[in-house]
Amino acid sequence: MQLSHRLEIIAAFVTPGNRLADIGTDHGYIPIYLVEKDRIPSAIAMDINRGPLLRAENNIRKSHLEDKITIRLSDGLSELNTGEADTILIAGLGGPLMRRILSNDMELIHSVKELVLSPHSEAELIRQFLFENNFNIENEIMLKDDGKFYIVIKAKKGHLDYNKSIHYKYGKKLLEEKNEILYEFLNHKKK
């Protein structure tokens, strides 16, 4: 399975050996890629809509991975049980929807080892959620793919030391590292 640059970066944020729950899986590309590369032992591919889930199921079948990747029709995390996943991945949703999904089952969120999140908008809402719920941003990157800017965040339980509003808005790590893509994004917004 060949991934886009964006999906490849997101997949790289998943810790090898972890069981994955991909929320809003769409085509199921990331779970398929990670299992094919032997980076994860298994995955649950979840989506709220039957159409994307059928595409994911078809792709999983074509890759002969039905024994390692299961699919579930689910509104966010509603069909995921505590103890079934080590990593929760949510990518391609806006910050408000992503925050709602995460907020709906805090016990489940705190039971996993890590969150890999790639909000398409309002990333500050996700950073604020992580701060409020005792998650530390272990890694964060901004990338550009096909002319669009994307954020990818890896968070684990811990204290997030964000003491300025600009840290939530643009990402403390990105600012401290003087991330080139962030500065390109800021210049783009300025124009």
Strand order in space, largest sheet: 3-2-1-4-5-7-6
Low-confidence stretches: none
Structural class: alpha/beta
Roughly what fraction of the amino acids lie in strands?
15-25%
Q: Helix coverage percent of residues?
A: 25-40%
- Name the average pLDDT: 95
**How many helices in DSSP terms?**
9
Question: What does the main sheet amount to?
Answer: 7 strands, mixed
Shape: globular
Kindly state the number of beta strands: 7
Cα-atom radius of gyration:
16 Å
How are helices and strands ordered from N to C?
Answer: HEHEHEEHHEHEEHHH
CA-to-CA gap between the ends? 38 Å
Written description of the protein model:
This protein has 191 residues and is α/β, with parallel strands linked by helices. The protein contains nine helices and seven strands, in the order αβαβαββααβαββααα. It has helices at residues 5-12, 29-36, 50-62, 95-103, 106-111, 123-132, 165-170, 172-176, 180-190, and strands at 20-23, 43-47, 69-73, 87-91, 114-118, 135-145, 148-157. Strands 3-2-1-4-5-7-6 form a seven-stranded mixed sheet, sandwiched between helices. Helix 1 (5-12) crosses helix 2 and helix 4 packs parallel to helix 6 (123-132). The longest helix is centred in the first third of the chain and has 13 residues, at 50-62. The radius of gyration is 16 Å and the shape is globular.
Chart the SSEs and their pairings:
Elements: H1 5-12, E1 20-23, H2 29-36, E2 43-47, H3 50-62, E3 69-73, E4 87-91, H4 95-103, H5 106-111, E5 114-118, H6 123-132, E6 135-145, E7 148-157, H7 165-170, H8 172-176, H9 180-190
Parallel strand pairs: 1-2, 1-4, 2-3, 4-5
Antiparallel strand pairs: 5-7, 6-7
